[in-house]
Design brief:
The chain is mainly α and about 200 residues long. The chain contains 11 helices and no strands. The chain is elongated and about 70 Å long. Helix 1 packs across helix 3 and helix 5 crosses helix 7.
């Protein structure tokens, strides 16, 4: 997907369109059909083409050391995976213009924005984590399903889960709780399933 984006993101500069990004997205629509891209793959390349100038613009026009700037950029990028791809795309795009385009200052600022945004995602994940003692109603529902399991054991399992995942326990599935209880006596068991590999 990243290579396809590199091929298409500036192709609009040779098209009779007002904005080269629009040209790139038009080319993507055609290429996606011929390459049989999935909707998820097409959406990812679409995002990268549409936003391929965002990181450079943020570095040049905004204070990247302002938490509000980092937060706004993170909301636009939405995920750590997209941040990684966009950073690589931006680096390659600038570096390919000419040997002098990627100055040491610009390279450092791109790195600083990447690190700050990556840290922002990490802090957001930590804020979203569930702290079991604060979820009284959830604990009661799980305890009702878990039989003789003590409240302390349930809290140990739930502590640290993200809220959306942990609330699934309230729907009647206590499989994770059973696995946790067996850890003291049974060896850890895994199940490996073969799935097709999708290139990033």
């Amino acid at each position: 997907m990243l290579i396809l984006t590199l091929l298409l993101h500036d192709v609009g500069k040779g098209m009779s369109v007002e904005n080269h990004v629009t040209g790139g997205l038009t080319a993507l629509a055609s290429a996606a059909k011929r390459l049989n891209l999935s909707s998820e793959e097409k959406e990812e390349v679409h995002f990268l083409i549409e936003h391929h100038l965002d990181m450079s613009a943020t570095v040049q026009r905004r204070d990247i050391f302002d938490p509000a700037t980092v937060s706004a950029f993170a909301q636009s990028v939405t995920t750590l995976e997209r941040l990684q791809r966009l950073s690589l795309l931006t680096y390659a795009d600038i570096h390919s213009v000419n040997p002098e385009a990627l100055t040491p200052w610009k390279a450092e600022m791109l790195w600083q924005l990447f690190v700050a945004t990556s840290n922002h995602f990490s802090r957001t994940l930590d804020r979203d984590r569930l702290h079991a003692p604060d979820e009284g109603s959830l604990l009661e529902r799980v305890q009702a399903l878990a039989g003789d399991t003590t409240l302390e054991e349930i809290e140990a399992v739930l502590e640290g889960f993200r809220g959306g995942i942990s609330r699934a326990f309230g729907g009647g599935d206590c499989g994770a709780l059973g696995v946790y209880q067996k850890l003291g006596t049974d060896p850890v068991q895994t199940e490996l399933l073969a799935t097709p590999m999708v290139s990033p």
